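Changelog note: in this version the structure field was regenerated for every chain. One regenerated record is shown below for reference.
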Amino acid sequence: MEMSDVQCSLILSNEIATVATALRQNAKWAFVGVRYDDEDQLDDPLLEEFLALRQKVLYWGEWELVDPLEYLAPFLDAVKSQEVSGPITGTALASLWKLLTSNVISPSTINAAEAVRRIVSAVQDCRFETTGHFEDEAVLMRIVQVLVACVRSDVGLLLSASDVQEIFFAMLQWCEVGSGTSGSEPSRVFAQSARHMLGELISGLFARLRMCRVPDLGVFGGRPGNRNPLSRSRSGQSLSHGGASMSPTLSFSLSEPGRASPHPMLVCGIDPLREMFLYFVALATSESKSASVDDNVLFALRMIHTAVVSAGEAIAEHRSLLSLIRTQLFVALNQALTRPPQSIHAAVFQVVLAMYKLFGDKLILQIECFFQTSLLRLCEGKGCYTQEHQEVALEALLDFCGHPDFLRDMYLNLDCRIERTNLFEDICALLSKMAFPVKAPLGAPHMISLEGLLAMLFTLSAGCSSDGLTVKTPPDPKAEMTEYADIWGDILLGQAPKLEGLLDDSTDQSGASDYEDNSDPIVRTVRLEKMIKQRVSVAADHFNRDFKKGFQFMQALHLLPKDNDARCIANFLRVCPLLDKEMAGDLLGERDDFYKQILQTFTESFNFADLSIDMALRMFLDTFKLPGEAQQVDRVLENFSKVYFKQQVNGVVKEQDGVHVLAFSIVMLNTDLHNSNVKTQMTMEDFVRNLRGLNGGVDFPLEMLQNIYRSIAKSPMRLQDLALEVPVVRWLVLDQQGETERGKMIRLLEISALDRDMFSLIWGPTVAAVSVVLDQADDLTTVQTALTGLKLAAKIASYYGVDEVIDNLVVTLCKFTSQLTPGVAKPLVHFGMNRKAQVATEAVFFIANRYGDTIRIAGWRSIMECVIRLYRLGVLPQNFWEEIDGSDPTATEPALELVNEPESTQGSGGGGSVGGMFNWFSGSSRDSAPTPEEREAQKRTVKCIENCNIRDLFRDTKFLQLEALLELVGAITWASGSTEGSSPTSQPVATDERSASLALDLLLFITLRNRDRIHQLWPCVHTYLEGIMSHEEGGPFASGFLIEGAILGLLKVCQRLLPYKPEVADLLLKSLELVLGLDPGVVRDMAERVAMEVLGLVKGAAAFVDQGWAWSTICLLLRMTATSPEAFNLAFEAFVIIVKDGAHLSSSNFTDCLATARSFVDRSSRERPEIAVQVFNLMEDMVRWLPNWRAEEGGTDGGGAGAGVNGDVVLPAGETKSGAEGWSEVVKALCSYSLDSNEQVRNHAVVALHRAIMLGESLQMDVHQWGAVVKHELLELVQVLVKKVAARELPQSDKTLRTAVKTLSKTFLLLLGQLRTLPTFPAMWLEILTVFQLCCVNRNDDLSEAVPEEVKNMLLVLAKEGILTKEWVDDRGNSLWDATWRKSRGISFGLDPEILKTWLGDAPVMVAQVPPPQQA
């Protein structure tokens, strides 16, 4: 923040006064020596300078135009004066610090650069007389503060490279105990404070990279970062303590500021910062083993961390610093991990974590290598000094996993790249392995690993919806490539393989026809490359057994072209990371021309430019193992020599043979120095002597050979990496690769696009590990942590539709409910005392309620098993039963009641179904009364069950996806004891009818809750009900209790669903036919409840029943239940609702309704004749309805359902009745009941018959039908009645006969116009007269009067209609006139032709024009 002129002047004035006052007040000790007497003290030149400066300050105007050297001079003189004591020097230093930190001197101030340089120089030349140890250290600390302020202030931008060098070197002097001014030994406290201030200095300098424009002049020449700090000479002043050295010589280059820029320029340039960074890297790489060295290494790591954090991502923008980090820093970090202190390990991991978070996109390859070679090995316990070191490594891994992008970055940029390792999978496998407690209790490593797994799950769950929905995911790529694509060459060049041409046909569309893939093409390409990588892994395994067969296998997978191509194979050997190096060496050592071509192409693929021959050879041999035969080795090294000689830049080696000889010698030197079988090792002199004159006739440069010898002696060329040791050349290769396209990190726009793939890879070991921790955990905190992990896994699995995960979790968690098994002593008490079992049970139902869509058969079976156990123990909440029983779910829920071990008194029988069985089960325990502790445990159990919300699980099934719903239905049927669809090894849990009845009611309840999906659900329910109703004796369903529940439940489902979904009527009512297969006695035993449900069905849903077979079943149930006195009224009420006023009559149910009516008359005529009378009235209603008859297509194909039952009148299947035929059947039925022995029934029947015949005129029947009714029904009825009256078989039957005669007479007269056309009419007429004649034989007064009257009326009508004439003859010519009068006189003597004259008068008797009789 800039200061105003007034503020600057005030600050300066205050500091002048402070120093001047110090000079005056301490006259006795302010100046050293006795040069001045008392009178001369006030004339001290230092004091005079301050006083003079004080006067000038008052008159200065624009502060930027004031030369800072003018007002700094007194302060600088005081600092450099040897005659000033320590306190005054400290005061002057404090003033300088204030002027710098207050920005009194700004970069825009005139002569500001020179001013800050003067301050640095004066402070470095600070001299003062010692006063005391503590006072002197205070002055030294002021010196350090001023130097740091010079750098961190705004004016510090103007410092040159040499200024920064001087400040840094001066700071280093005070960072060691035992260094300081002559005669003083700074304390450790001062040294630590100085180190802290050095950290401030580093922070300020490297922060400039973010805020300033920094020129990168590349003073090293060539590739930046080539200088190796490990080999630098340590000359110059040594700050030693305990054998530790911290001051290698630093050589900085001064760089001038460039042209003006909108961003401030850091004058010193990048070089001092790089050298500082390099210094600390070198310090961290120290190989000495001592406590002081460890302290310096830790200090270096902290300074590196400070530099990285301060510079941020800007540090990676400078190629020289980035190369230094990629190579030498990671070497130093790996080296530091070999030291014992845990603090060093923690510091290393924090440095890597900081680099990842700030500029990890440029270090992805280095981070991969660091993890694979160092961190994961330490996490596994390999190379650790103690378990605490392993814990530090695991905590570091936890820090990485906790970063929201780390796991996705590793999977996308490593696991999904063919040439890289599967770091994400390796991390998950490691954490899962470390979380497993193997033969030991849970410890810190297990818990840290568990937290790591949870961090992974948290990351993957962050993008998942919390509402339990399942997202549509793109289909997996095909398992095989359809054509060859040259992926190896592109990868070798650091380019992404061109897979776009394979995208269109690489997707497996099976089961994904409804998914439209609109995903990012990059995501599709990445997933395809991951698939190819999996194929490559299999191919590499074949190669490692036999490379020739491996090539054939890869050609079959289209990973190599069909025709052998040396270039493709060579590129494959360079790129594939899974190859066995020994097998690769054998291939490259083959003598065939094709393999020689592969070797040549393979070698030419390396870039050896700017590398020494030993480093180039290390790079070459790091990719394979040299074969064992000398000829093969020579052939390999010869190819290396050709390539290296062509690519060398400095031309040190004169000819190709010289390279060959030198390379062979290096290989031999490596064997000689590092083979334990070699007793006498080669010396450097021997190595040099052996190569004399072999460089094209001259010697190789001595320094080069010595460096080669030292390099091989220090770091052997190994085939396999040792723990925490990575060849330096590996880091160089990674640095080269880091500059390519494949060496940089990419991120997706949709960060969670690959989360499902990631979860699919890790869920197995993760869930297994967390489950084991849960199983062995004793404390509740650990249990809750493990359950949190399992819930997260369930959330992710549900969101991405990974079904098997939820099943696995549910089955695992349900194991903890085993204590609730009935038969175990006091299960409620034991469960209530086991907190782990309680929270696990709650977790089971939490998962089931939240993520039920992805639960499959195994999970649902475990849940149902748990529910059955709770039911047997009687601890299911009362509101659970009320909901399922259909009670008001909004009613206040009753409090839970505690049940005392009900299983001990539970019998095998019992209770009703649907409603009756849902009573709260309770019983008295045969054990002694529970103790207070046991009762509290029981209460905890009941509270736990209440928290499980089991009711919601079944109530909310309407929200389940169809597949999950069907799986639940299957689990319920399995739990009931059904073996339908079960595997041979699965054992149902319901061994008693109560549990099976619970399953039945749950099934029916779920059916009602899912009425919108009844079409898909009902086939399963139907099959289950069929199994119950067709039970075998002794089977799991051999129970009238279950059959009753099935019938009642089926009727209840029909009641509730038919009004809501009429279109499912056929589907549901078809299941009612299952009742037809039952023994009538079974239905009779439950008749009352069945009749009640049928009544409810008829009341609410009769209008939706339109199929004959359905009505046949309903009517059959009415007839069957009517046999029970308790159910008779209910059944009759249902029948009345159907028939009365024709409310629900139809052509499809008329016959069944008539059969049912006859059944009710048969069962009520003797004891309850009033019911029969009502039925006759209903029959009249049926006749009145007949004009509405409509023959339906297909007819009543189910009419046969009632065949043979209680006199049903049925038609053959497929035949259609007409209204007339229905009327005829009613007439027949009434005629039959007109002969009933009960007078009331008989009389009402004949009256109803009369009315029915009268109503039949509206049906437009043909004459033959009417003739049949008159002759075969009415006439025969009268004949039978006459006989029975004569035989006195029917007491008081005269009235019935008289009504029947009247009915016959009225019918005859009513239909006379039609009957006269029948050829049988004369015979019918004579037969009627004969029957009437018999009626009069009985000599009954009523009949004697009624019959002649009826005959007279008939005669008159016949005469009036012109039928009864003298010319009326039959087909044989016999006179019907004579026959009529002859029979009439037999009825009554008064019936003769004279009556015609009496009634007709003198009117002529007309002869009716009767058409000729039809032939019979």
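Spot check on this record: The two ends are 131 Å apart (CA to CA). The first helix runs from residue 5 to 25.
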